[in-house]
Amino acid sequence: MRRNLLTVALPKGRIFGEAYQALKRAGLDLPPVLDERALLHGKEGGIALLELRNKDVPVYVDLGIAEIGVVGKDILLDSGRDLFEPVDLGFGACRLSLIRRPGDKGPIRRIATKYPLFTARLLKERGWVADVVELSGNIELAAVTGLADAVVDVVETGATLRSAGLEEVEVLARSSARLIVNRQALKLKRDLLKPLIAHLRNP
Ligand code: PRP
After folding, report:
1. Could you tell me if the CB of 149 is within 6 A of ligand 1?
2. What span, in angstroms and rounded, lies between the C-alpha atoms of 50 and 118?
3. Cβ 17 under 6 angstroms from ligand 1
4. Under-70 pLDDT residues of the chain
5. Probe target for ligand 1 pocket from 54, 144, 160, with the most ligand atoms within 8 Å of CB
6. Which of 55, 154, 171 most suits a substitution to test ligand 1, by most atoms within 8 Å of the C-beta?
7. DSSP state string for 21-69
8. How many Å lie between the centroid of ligand 1 and the Cα of residue 153?
9. Does ligand 1 come within 6 angstroms of the Cβ of 52?
10. Per-residue pLDDT tens digits for 165-196
11. What pLDDT is recorded for position 1?
């Protein structure tokens, strides 16, 4: 097993670059990303950087493999994990919305999503009875093809919705990138993490 001063979990894709820069500006000496294909960056003994699928960031932080991570609130709302989330970093803004075909007003019997826990909670809160179908991507297609009569999905610019001819019926939650911290690490690596959190709160 590798030993590192600190291990940081970041999601590949949209928010990786902004998260990397924000942590650097806050004084964290992150390793350079030299090899685009590498999944783990940094030398043993220093700061390690893990590039993960966004859903896996809360898992690595909760289980203590990474002490800190950056991930969207949308992912946290579906993670089922109670993580310490001390800073809203502001970037990566998007929303989780209920989406249907225009004019579709009938009852929702089947709802497709890649956010099954969030969606199940929503159904329970509203007393709606519907099956939740978990899909992995291109969720809009479920509404377009009739696989489901509604979908819960992330909307950023709305371009995907418009091109699929779908309607955003309701914004269910607002999301942006959050710093998450393993609770035990917060105590054990307090000297390193406290100033980092303070810098990120007041950049
Ligand atoms: C998300 C989402 C929409 C799109 C919304 O997909 O599922 O398809 O982004 O963004 P927009 O409002 O700016 O068009 P993502 O790119 O994360 O890929 P996935 O659906 O394959 O998970």
Report:
1. no
2. 26
3. no
4. 1
5. 160
6. 154
7. HHHHHTT--PPP---TT-SEES-TTSEEEEEE-GGGHHHHHHTTSSSEE
8. 8
9. no
10. 999 999 999 999 999 999 999 999 999 999 99
11. 67
- 112-143: b or e for each residue (b if 16 or more CB lie within 10 Å)? bbbbbebbbebbeeeeeebebbebeeebbebb
Q: From CA 190, how far away is CA 181, in angstroms rounded?
A: 11
Structure tokens at 152: 């819960």
Q: 182 to each of 51, 100, 201, how far by Cα in Å?
A: 17, 38, 17
Q: Is 160 helix (H, G, I), strand (E, B) or coil?
A: helix
3-state secondary structure of 191: helix
Q: Whole-prediction pTM value?
A: 0.94
159 lines ligand 1 (CB under 6 A): yes
Q: What distances in angstroms separate CA 1 from CA 4, 45, 65, one per listed residue?
A: 10, 12, 10
The atom number, within ligand 1, closest to the CA of 162 reads 14
Distance between CA atoms of 197 and 16, rounded to whole angstroms? 18
| The pLDDT value given to residue 50 | 96
- Total residues found in the chain within this entry: 203
Task: Please report the atom of ligand 1 found closest to the CA of residue 158.
Answer: 12
DSSP, res 11: E
Minimal-distance CA residue to ligand 1 atom 5: 155
